[in-house]
Amino acid sequence: MNKSFFHFMILFSLVILAGCQSQKPKTTQLAEQAGSSAQGNGPSVISVEGRVVPRVTLNLAFSLNGRVGEVLVQEGETVQASQVIARLGNRQQAEVAVRAAELELITAQQTLKALSDNQDEVVNRALLAVNNARQAVEDAQRYLDSITGYPLQNEIAGAKAQVILAENQLESAQDKYENYQERVETDKVRANARVSLTEAQRAYNDAVKHLDDLQGDGYNFILKQAQTALDVAKEELVLAEENINKVKNGPDPDALALAEARRIAAEADLASAQAGLGQFELRAPIAGTLVDSNLQVGQQVTPGMTVVKLVDVSDWFVETQDLTEMDVVNVQVGQTVQVVADALPDVKLTGRVSSISDFYREMRGDITYISRIKLDQADSRLRWGMTVMATFVEP
Fold it and tell me: Which of 225, 230, 317, 380 lies 20 to 30 Å from 393, alpha-carbon distance?
C-alpha cells in the first residue's frame, strides 16, 4: 500500500514537471486562444497586449529661472502650434531690446529703400552738376582769353591812351588852378579849380594803375588767378562726370553695400532680441491639448522642470511592449492589425503598424521590442491608457 502510494506520487510529480516545461510564451498562448495552431501547417497568429496612446506626448518646460507672470491656457484647453501658454515675469528689459531692434531694422530698411527710390533725383542732380561744371570751365576760359593775346594788347593800348588823356587833363587842371591859387580859399572860382585838379589827379592815378595791372605785377597776379580758376573748374568737371557715370547705372555700390550690411545686422539683432524675449515664454511646439498642468501665477520654475504636458490626440495609437524576438521578425511596418479594447470587447478596430523600435529591452527573461500601431478609426469612447489586445494579421 505504501509502495503503491510512493509510485503514484512520483508519477504525479513527473506530470506536473512536464506541464511546467511545456509552458509557452504569452504571445503563443494568446495565439492558441485566438484559434491558430502552434503546430501544423498553418502560420502562427501573433497577439500581444498594448495600451492606447496619443499621437504625440510632450513634456514642456521653461528655459529660464523665474516666476510665472501669466498663465494664458488652462489644463484641458486646446492650443495651436506656437501659441503662448504662459509667460515669466520681469521681462521688461527683453521687451525694450526687441522694440529697439525693431526700430533699427525699420530705419535700415528705409535707408536701403531710399537709395533706390531717390535714384532719379540723384541722377538729375548729377547731370545738373555736370552742366554747371562745364559752364564754369567755359566762363573761366573766356575770361583768361580776354586778358591774354590780342585782347590784352588792345587793352594795353587803350590803357596807354587813357593815361595820356588823363595826363593832359591833369596838366590843364594844374595850369588853371595856378591862375587862381593866390586867391582866398573861400573864392568860388579858386575852389572849382581845386576840385577839377583833384578829380584830374585821381583819374590819372587810376589810368596809371590800370596800365600797370595790364603790364606789371598786378597783371601777373590777375593772370595767375584766372589760370587757377580755370584749373579748378576743369577738376570739378572731371569729378562731376565721374559721378554721373557712377550714379546713372544705379545707386552708389558702396552706399548700397553699407545699407544692406546695416539691414542684415539689424535683422540679426532683432532675431537675437526676439529669441531672448522668447525664453520668457512657454509656447506650444505643436497643436494639441494641455494635460497634467501645474502652472500657477507666482510659481517659481527652473530650466527643464516639466510644468505641463501637451498631447496630440488627432490620431490614436496602440503601443505594445512585449513583441518578442521570435515574433518581431514576422511583423513589418504597414501590416494590418486587429485591435480589441478590454473595456469595449464588442468593438472591432483595425490599424496598421507605423513603427517598430530598433532597440530591445529584456522583459521577464524575454527580449522584446516596442511597436506602434496607428488606428484607422478610433471609437469615441477610447481613452488614453486603455489596455487592448492587438492581433497582427498575416500579410
Answer: 380
